[in-house]
Amino acid sequence: IKLKNQRDMSERKQASANFDARKCERVGTGSLKWDSNKFHLLEVDLPYDSVESDVLPMWVADMDFAPAEFITEAITKRASLTLGYNIRTEPFYDGVIDWVKRRYDWTIQREWIVTCPSTIVAVSLCLMAHTQAGDKVIMQTPVYHALHSVFEVNGRTIVNNHLLEKDGRYYMDFEDIEKKLADPWVKMFVLCSPHNPAGRVWEPEELQKLIALCDARGVMILSDEVWSDFTFQGITHTPLGKLASPNSITIFGPTKSFNIAALGISLAIIPDKKTRDAVRQQYSKGGFFGGNVFSEVALQACYSPTGEAWLNELKTYINKNVDCVVQCCQKSNGRLIAIRPESGYLVWIDCRNWKSSDPRSLSEIFKSDARVWLSDGTEFGEGGSGFVRINVGCQLETVQLAMDRILQLVLKN
């Protein structure tokens, strides 16, 4: 017991981080957020114009903190060894299994785990394994725009199921879901859980009702749960796969919570062997092999007790950033309404009481006139018009500066 207590104290000490002091210079590092003036899913290799130096980019969902030491130490240690072809090791799988059990009380099997280079690649492989060109896919809008893009470029027809917004919280429209599931061409339902951009964490009862409706029609549920580890205190995320029949795929990973998107790692949990084999076949067709060796050791570091303690500290810090946005919006005389996220460092802001007759998009207005670059709500599909999304994964002083600029503009017009 004494040794365990000493180890726990050591891990907490190592994880301790002063996020105000962890500012990371990102200009000139090839940062998508800080070194590019546009983004399109299919144009990542095209030249970009630089962001104007006085603009605060608070759109794309990554963080501006310096990497955690336990991550950089794991990568540095691994870099001193061979960098030839690699395989995923048993400690990697054990780390994933232990994390899921510890965080969600969900027991998964090693063979259920399919590793992928990113969440979007995982989604793409799953849709190609389970649907054909022309098939219909239900998606709940407004929703993360890359999900729309990957289905459209693969020739699938998107059927929108609009989320219902009431008193600053989003809900599923089950009546509409049931009607749309009746279409025999609907082969898949895409769930964003927790939801991006609304930040909603779905209740187990909501998920169970969705599962029952999809199971009755034999429709596969693909659940993007990349924000699952970032729920705030008092809020519990329930993995879809913990509740669902084998007719489900759950996708998650450490990239958002630990800010390691550049390392390329995502996990698809697929209990059904037939479905899993079909996804692995698409994986082989794409020429994927092995994986990024640095992502393997980084994931193990993230999913350790040290990583968990660091993440809990980070969420406490980010919650203060969210408070800043909410409080500033409350000073806008009702022109801006911030929807407090239950998970993640993205805040969805309702600007419908302020939007004027200006023909420019909200994103263009804020970028040009307030010098703050936000994601425009229209990027997230139907139901996003009149909203913007702000990324608060940065120092509090940056959030305060951005909101001061935004509030000054809104109160002036």
Name a few traits of the molecule.
7-stranded mixed β-sheet, alpha/beta, disordered N terminus, 413 residues, 15 strands, globular
What's this entry about, in short?
With 413 residues, the chain is α/β, with parallel strands linked by helices. It is built from 15 helices and 15 strands.
Task: Describe the protein's architecture and organization.
There is one protein chain. It is built from 15 helices and 15 strands. It is of the alpha/beta class. A seven-stranded mixed β-sheet has the order 2-10-9-8-7-3-4, sandwiched between helices. Strands 11-12-15-14 form a four-stranded antiparallel β-sheet, covered by helices on one side. It has a two-stranded parallel sheet with strand order 1-13. The longest helix is centred in the last third of the chain and has 26 residues, at 305-330.
What is the count of β-strands?
A: 15
Poorly predicted regions: 1-15
Strand content: 15-25%
Q: How would a textbook summarize the main sheet?
A: 7 strands, mixed
Please state the overall shape, judged from the principal axes of the Cα atoms.
Answer: globular
Summarize the helix and strand pattern as letters: HHEHHEHEHEEEHEHEHEHEHHHEEHEEEH
Task: Compile the SSE list and pairings.
Layout: H1 2-15, H2 32-35, E1 56-57, H3 69-79, H4 90-104, E2 113-116, H5 119-130, E3 136-141, H6 145-153, E4 157-162, E5 164-166, E6 169-171, H7 174-181, E7 186-192, H8 204-217, E8 220-224, H9 240-243, E9 248-252, H10 255-258, E10 266-269, H11 273-285, H12 293-302, H13 305-330, E11 337-339, E12 346-350, H14 362-370, E13 372-373, E14 375-376, E15 387-391, H15 396-412
Parallel strand pairs: 1-13, 3-4, 3-7, 7-8, 8-9
Antiparallel strand pairs: 2-10, 5-6, 9-10, 11-12, 12-15, 14-15
